[in-house]
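ARCHIVE CARD
CATEGORY: sequence design from structure
SOURCE FIELD: tokenized fold
FIELD CONTENT:
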């Protein structure tokens, strides 16, 4: 090989390495550190009038220190790590460290019931359980190592079991993280996302110009919910700062608004219901947030009267309706018209972000183009999830051949969401095909809640519905038939039973006891009849 050819080969290899490097989660999110290392990366509310700032250089140093400690444990690329924490500078540094070490992280909430955590750990074969120094989790299965973080170094309480290292190179197609959602089988379902998929989504999102350097993005979702990873990617990928809003303060509107004010938040992301109490009781407090230039919402419908009121109180803010699934993190960002037309009945979810495309498909598998015809959304995207953990059948049902040309071998996401096209080709979401619902932005499979209820020794049959009560948020309502035909006492024991295995947002708000469930002609529980009966009771 000639010297010039050799130089070209080296340059080509280096270019390839650079491309691959920037398809890794940590590389993309820390790339701004080289541009402005002293810029704020995470701004945390400590107390009224007091915040703690972690700068990009500090965040990168913290992540590298944690990564070095993780590598010292002898874990192999691809070994799963449970990350139990609320969103914080150290939690963000830790998942960046997991990315650096090639360890897929599985975020869980400190409020996750022991039984559910054990199920997730057993399913993933997790090598290590990480929690903060203040964490109170006990009884972690002995198969996994234990360690705490929060001081800048890893404190190992129980080393992981010795492992044989087989991998040497982290690839963009390797798993970056897994998000466990409610599953139709009654067991949590693990959504596997690769580095390539996540960074592809981030790049598509960043084309929308939602925030930039100097902005501060308030994130209100728990770390186990992929919306929080969207917020973190939006902020760090734009050179802005992440502002974690403490979960315990969201229910108190005055405290929620105080966090936004004290941290200087310029962008507020979350499910629409985070604004409800403030809109009702502290509208002047919202109007005082003159520094808020943007609001992004996702996960549930934003009632139009409330959205109009928020527009009035924040006239300077760009409001964005975000739509998508955990299997691609999200896929569209649609600006809310300002002002909202008086005759508007439904918000559009618009079009997919650049690099992705939403298709509508009818029951026969044909692609729909004409306006007003209901179809199922299929998403063509480089941000497609790898599959559901240890569930090839469910993976094959969701990752399907491209309906536009099935011979190509390309796979698209079959979302299970229904929509129709508007006159300009924009999409309007119209609900689900299956029993999946959204509660405060969290995905809930009604079948998982029903299975838990049927596990109770006194319950013979159970059907759970999503019900809207006037003046209240959407509620989960359980309709039960007991084995002996008598009602169970309303002393909280049934709620406690559900809470042992289900996340708090999955526990029914109401329990109704029936002599028998109404059934449809095919012998299945008639959910429509149950909904009518509940409406009469209300």
């Amino acid at each position: 090989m000639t010297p010039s050819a050799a130089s070209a080969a080296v340059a080509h290899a280096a270019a390839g390495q650079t491309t691959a490097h920037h398809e890794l989660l940590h590389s993309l999110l820390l790339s701004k550190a080289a541009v402005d290392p002293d810029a704020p990366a995470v701004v945390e509310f400590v107390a009224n009038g007091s915040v703690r700032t972690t700068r990009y250089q500090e965040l990168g140093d913290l992540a590298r220190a944690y990564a070095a400690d993780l590598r010292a444990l002898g874990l192999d690329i691809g070994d799963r790590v449970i990350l139990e924490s609320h969103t914080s500078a150290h939690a963000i540094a830790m998942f960046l460290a997991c990315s650096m070490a090639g360890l897929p992280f599985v975020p869980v909430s400190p409020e996750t019931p022991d039984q559910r955590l054990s199920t997730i750990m057993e399913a993933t074969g997790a090598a290590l359980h990480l929690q903060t120094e203040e964490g109170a989790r006990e009884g972690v299965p002995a198969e996994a190592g234990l360690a705490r973080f929060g001081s800048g170094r890893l404190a190992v309480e129980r080393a992981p079991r010795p492992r044989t290292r087989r991998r040497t190179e982290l690839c963009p197609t390797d798993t970056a993280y897994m998000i466990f959602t409610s599953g139709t089988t009654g067991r949590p379902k693990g959504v596997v996302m690769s580095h390539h998929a996540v960074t592809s989504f981030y790049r598509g999102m960043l084309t929308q110009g939602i925030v930039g350097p100097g902005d501060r993005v308030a994130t209100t979702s728990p770390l186990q919910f992929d919306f929080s990873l969207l917020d973190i990617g939006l902020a760090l990928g734009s050179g802005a700062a992440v502002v974690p809003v403490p979960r315990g303060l969201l229910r108190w509107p005055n405290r929620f608004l105080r966090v936004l004010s004290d941290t200087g938040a310029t962008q507020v992301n979350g499910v629409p219901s985070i604004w409800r109490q403030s809109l009702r009781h502290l509208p002047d407090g919202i109007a005082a947030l003159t520094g808020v230039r943007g609001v992004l919402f996702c996960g549930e419908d934003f009632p139009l009267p409330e959205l109009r009121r928020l527009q009035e109180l924040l006239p300077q803010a760009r409001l964005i309706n975000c739509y998508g699934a955990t299997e691609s993190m999200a896929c569209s960002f649609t600006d809310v018209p300002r002002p909202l037309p008086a005759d508007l009945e439904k918000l559009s979810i618009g079009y997919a972000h650049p690099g992705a495309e939403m298709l509508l498909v009818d029951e026969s598998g044909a692609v729909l183009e004409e306006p007003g015809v209901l179809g199922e959304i299929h998403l063509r995207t480089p941000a497609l999830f790898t599959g559901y953990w240890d569930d090839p059948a469910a993976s094959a049902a969701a990752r399907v051949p491209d309906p536009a040309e099935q011979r190509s071998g390309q796979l698209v996401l079959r979302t299970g969401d229904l929509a129709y096209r508007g006159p300009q080709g924009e999409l309007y979401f119209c609900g689900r095909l299956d029993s999946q619902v959204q509660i405060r932005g969290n995905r809930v499979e009604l079948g998982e809640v029903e299975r838990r209820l049927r596990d109770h020794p006194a319950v013979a049959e159970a059907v759970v519905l999503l019900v809207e009560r006037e003046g209240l948020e959407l509620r989960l309502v359980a309709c039960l038939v007991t084995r002996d035909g008598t009602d169970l006492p309303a002393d909280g024991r049934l709620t406690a039973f559900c809470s042992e295995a289900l996340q708090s947002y999955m526990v029914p708000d109401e329990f109704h006891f029936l002599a028998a469930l109404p059934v449809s002609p095919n012998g299945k529980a008639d959910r429509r009849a149950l909904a009518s009966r509940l409406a009469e009771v209300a």
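CARD ANNOTATION: The first strand starts at residue 40 and ends at 47. The chain is about 30% helix and 25% strand.
SHELF: design records, drawer C
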